[in-house]
Write a structure and sequence with these properties.
Blueprint lengths: L1 E9 L10 H11 L2 H11 L3 E6 L4 E4 L5 E5 L12 E7 L4 E5 L7 E4 L3 E4 L2 E7 L18 E5 L2 H11 E5 L6 E7 L3 H23 L1 H35 L4 H38 L15 H21 L7 H47 L1 H37 L7 E2 L14 H26 L6 H7 L4 E7 L16 H18 L7 E7 L6 H14 L4 E5 L21 H6 L5 H4 L1 E3 L2 E7 L8 H5 L3 H12 L2 E5 L8 H5 L5 E7 L5 H12 L6 E8 L21 H8 L3
Parallel strand pairs: 14-21, 15-19, 15-20, 16-18, 16-19, 20-21
Antiparallel strand pairs: 1-12, 1-13, 2-3, 2-10, 4-9, 5-6, 5-10, 6-7, 8-9, 11-12, 17-18
Pfam families: AAA_31 (PF13614), GNVR (PF13807)
Catalytic activity: L-tyrosyl-[protein] + ATP = O-phospho-L-tyrosyl-[protein] + ADP + H(+)
Keywords: ATP-binding, Kinase, Membrane, Nucleotide-binding, Transferase, Transmembrane, Transmembrane helix, Tyrosine-protein kinase
Length: about 725
């Protein structure tokens, strides 16, 4: 599915993008940034994907699922590079099944349990969901889920590669956004959230200055608060040390106290003067009465004594007018006056001493207050300096507080979005990919072009022969005896009596064609057929053996000679012990040996005898050059109807060229999908140089589809083809 924002945002509305096209291009790059995509992916937890296996393929599940998986924050998804995959199924409202591999055992887990999977801590929470697939309209169970958690970076790269952002016009400021996704709803959410993240990012950019200002103000407020506290503490310490609250008020109070003290001091000095005068008066004028009224004495006891003294003195003077000094009354009154006078003197002394003490206290207070008053100018100067510092710091503090409130209001005000949404993201009803018509057309075109291309490339780069056409094209002078089909891996490569297999039929055709070629010779002697190939592995030994067997089954007495004395292979068709049996090498070395002493009959074919290669000599070429070679051929011709020689490969050694002069026909074996086309040129040059005579080719291991002249239709028309069960039973030895 594809999701898109058709005319997604008028990004240049009201000059928000600027007046030039470069601004739009810059904003497009921001919209395509992996940073914004990462925010979107984290918002919807898109690193975790859910899928459900269907009849044909797995389908992504976006919303309709029974649980949700979250990676714990302390285990960041970006910390690992490999994806995590596991499987869950619903068990009950509080339990779910979990398995880490498709073939592992289900484990029962509880929702809310922290589960460790590949060093990642996961927590599972249940979700409500519909148990019926509304898309299919059937009752298919939707509980089993496959969950994959991928690294954040890989998911961001995935969505970034599928996101397309472009302008609707060359000079326009309207931008189209689209993204391809298998789930249309998810594509819509991604595009809508991308615009929201873009607007948030733009608002954050606008608030950077305000945020920096707020941070600066906050730091300065902290410093100013400390300074203000320091100034306030200094003022407090200064006033505490000086005993001040308000210098003006304190000074007024001190002046008032001085006046009060002066007044008190005046009263004390007056009382002190009165006391002293009264004492002098009583010392000099003892018989005069002492008046206390108007003196302002503040000592009640002294006043009482003086009043008592005056009363006794008055009585003494009145009685003295009528009585003598010696009268008892006068004596008693005189003694009483003396006693009262002593009491008055004593009281006056105490009174005067008390007034002196009070006078000294008042003088001390007066001096202290006067000293404080004398310090007022200096204290006022210091106080003004401290107050001035406090006012400056306080003014800065109030200014910063005001700016802080202004900045807070600026941050609190919601700025208008930078991108105006014209159409929200929507997914079309039909998939944007794949398109059935395009797929069918592409399949048709590829169905034609790919086979043609493969055939063309194969013709250019594949240098192996495949059919008789390759030989006819490169060796037009060489007749082709036939083709040997490619055998199945479990098929036998040896012809047996009454064999009706494709292999047997192909060699019967080769035998027939070879008989025509042998019949065209100008002599009636026993014919000698030399079988060779260019390189090892082309099947010349197998061809020679089966060709000899086919002629022998037709009634001819055939001798098969192992002419490849460098790498003997004929013994593999029989008992391995025959590898050590004497053969060609011993015949060529020992002139006393006869063929009849060395030939080996074939058990299931009485007309076929074999002369094995014998021991591997150190000088094969020199042995073939001896006269015993001719003797061996002549002796064989005298004993058999047909002599077939399995010779060595021509491109490797010279043995074949040495004995080719004894051959009537050279059967040159090639192998499909093995023999290089370049080797055909070697064969052609060898024939042109006369090293090989009367050459006829056989193509071995040809696929049935490459058989020429319709042979693929008739080789086994009468053969009983085994069924699959028969082949299986044969393989299992039932």
């Amino acid at each position: 599915m594809g999701g898109g924002l058709s005319e997604t945002g008028v990004l240049g509305d009201m000059g928000l993008f600027g007046s030039n096209f470069n601004s739009v291009e810059n904003e497009i790059e921001i919209l395509k940034s992996k940073r914004l995509l990462s925010n979107v992916i984290n918002h919807y937890n898109l690193t975790t994907t859910y899928s459900r296996k269907g009849n044909v393929k797995e389908s992504d599940v976006y919303t309709n699922r029974f649980l949700n998986v979250n990676v714990l924050k302390n285990d960041s998804i970006a910390e690992f590079n490999n994806s995590i995959t596991f499987y869950v199924k619903e068990v009950s409202d509080s339990l779910f099944g979990l398995r880490l591999q498709t073939d592992s055992k289900w484990l029962t887990k509880e929702y809310g349990e922290i589960i460790k999977i590949e060093d990642q801590s996961l927590i599972f929470s249940p979700l409500p969901y519909n148990t019926v697939d509304s898309n299919n309209g059937d009752d298919q169970e939707l509980s089993d889920l496959k969950i994959s958690i991928r690294p954040n970076e890989l998911v961001v790269q995935d969505y970034h590669s599928r996101l397309n952002v472009n302008t609707s016009g060359k000079r326009g400021s309207v931008v189209n956004l689209s993204i391809t996704d298998v789930v249309g709803e998810r594509a819509e959410d991604v595009l809508n959230q991308l615009i929201e993240e873009y607007n948030k990012d733009a608002i954050n950019d606008k608030n950077i200055v305000a945020l920096n200002t707020a941070e600066f103000i906050e730091e300065r407020l902290n410093d100013i608060t400390k300074d203000l506290d320091s100034v306030e503490t200094g003022i407090e310490s200064f006033k505490t040390n000086k005993g001040l609250t308000d210098i003006g008020v304190e000074t007024s109070l001190d002046l008032q106290k001085v006046n009060e003290i002066e007044s008190e001091l005046l009263k004390v000095e007056t009382q002190l003067s009165i006391g002293r005068s009264l004492k002098e008066f009583m010392i000099t004028d003892i018989e005069k009465s002492v008046t206390t009224s108007g003196l302002g004495l503040n000592e009640p006891q002294l006043i009482a004594l003086i009043n008592n003294y005056n009363e006794v003195l008055t009585t003494y003077q009145r009685i003295g007018q009528t009585s003598t000094q010696e009268s008892p009354v006068m004596v008693r009154l005189s003694n009483e006056l003396s006693s009262l006078k002593r009491g008055i003197f004593s009281s006056l002394d105490s009174y005067i001493n008390g007034l002196k003490v009070e006078q000294n206290n008042l003088l001390r207070k007066s001096n202290q207050i006067n000293a404080n008053i004398s310090q007022v100018p200096n204290n006022e100067k210091t106080s003004r300096s401290v107050e001035r510092n406090r006012e400056v710091v306080e003014a800065i503090y109030l200014l910063l507080r005001e700016k802080q409130e202004t900045t807070a209001i600026s941050l609190a005000v919601t700025a208008p979005p930078k991108a105006k949404i014209v159409d929200s993201g929507y997914a079309p009803d039909t998939p944007v990919s794949p398109k059935p018509k395009i797929i069918l057309l592409a399949a048709l075109v590829l169905g034609v072009l790919i086979p043609l291309g493969l055939v063309y490339l194969k013709q250019i780069f594949y240098n192996k022969i495949e059919s008789r056409k390759d030989l006819e094209r490169n060796l037009p002078q060489v007749s082709i005896l036939g083709e040997v089909p490619k055998l199945e891996s479990d098929a036998k490569d040896r012809i047996i009596p009454n064999d009706r297999s494709v292999l047997a039929e192909s060699f019967r055709i080769i035998r027939t064609n070879l008989q025509y070629k042998l019949g065209a010779l100008n002599h009636d002697d026993t014919k000698v057929v030399l079988v060779t190939s260019t390189v090892k592995g082309e099947g010349k030994t197998t061809t020679a053996f089966n060709l000899a067997s086919t002629f022998a089954y037709s009634g001819k007495k055939v001798l098969l000679i192992g002419g490849d004395i460098r790498n003997p292979q004929l013994h593999r068709f029989f008992d391995a012990s025959l590898k050590r049996k004497k053969g060609v090498t011993e015949y060529l070395v020992n002139s006393d040996l006869k063929l009849e002493d060395l030939v080996v009959p074939v058990d299931d074919n009485s007309n076929l005898h074999m002369l094995l290669s014998g021991s591997i000599p150190p000088n094969p070429a020199e042995l073939w050059m001896q006269s015993r070679t001719k003797d061996m051929i002549e002796e064989a011709k005298g004993m058999y109807d047909l002599v077939i020689i399995d010779s060595a490969p021509t491109i490797v050694v010279t043995d074949t060229f040495l004995i080719n002069k004894f051959a009537d026909v050279t059967v040159y074996v090639t192998r499909a999908n093995h023999t290089d086309r370049g080797l055909l040129e070697f064969i052609s040059d060898t024939i042109k140089d006369g090293k090989l005579t009367n050459v006829a080719a056989v193509i071995n291991s040809v696929k049935l589809t490459n058989f020429g002249y319709g042979n693929k239709y008739g080789y086994s028309y009468s053969a009983d083809k085994k069924t699959f069960m028969e082949k299986l039973k044969a393989k299992l030895n039932f």
